[in-house]
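Illustration 12: RING-type domain-containing protein.
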Amino acid sequence: MSLQEEVEKSYDPNDATLKFVDREDDIDPLSDSCLRAEMSCGHAVTPESLTSWCRSLLKQGKYEFRCPALVDGTKQCNELWPYKEVRRLADLSVEEMEEFEESMARLAAADYCEIKPCPRCRTNVERKNLSNLCVQCTICTADKKKAYQFCWQCLKRWKGPGPRSDRCNNNGCNNKDLELLRNCKDTTLPQVQGVDRCPSIRACPTCGQIAEHDSTGCKNITCCRCQVEFCFVCLKLTPECLKTSSYFIPCSDGVAPRQTSIPVWHRR
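Figure caption equivalent — predicted structure in token form:
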């Protein structure tokens, strides 16, 4: 066990760059550390609780650090913390910084770039057009002296006309997520007035991430991928939905039908 692991982290009480507060840790209320500092969102942390929380987010595949503190006892703060702030208030060691930054870089690359190995030469290929499943491998094209294209979905040599966003003509080429959207069971949202039948699986209207409602609380959920909040019932973004309703009443358009396509995330 290293010295870093043996000694619990604590703030230097003489550090004038930190704002110390006399209240419980908003991440870990049971923390017995005496000094707590205030994050930019206004919630109190200790270096131990902040490090543990951010490490847990990385393990979940999330490279953005957001505040988990409850606001009014019901909703998470969800304020985005800059990494520079996390690094400072979590008192990250050199080893921890390397661990965090390597994980962040790997997760961000996987999120912002569509990369898969070519089924022929195994070279990583980036799909630049997210609406086209037909992808060309430059290595195989140069090697064979003619265009070599494969299907992003089934990872077989491309068959049929292109471009296409649904499938190629290979047998068994289908979108599992789309099948799930079409064939999922109905569910109820007991706390939302009048919603006794709604598809149990939805695709986020912003990025296409598959999501499921836990059937408790209000009708709105926050996508774990793009962090955009939307209405699980009408599929509008929350601000638009709330123009004609509330969190526990369906909007004027009612329950949106089952989705027959998956939105493509146009990142800015």
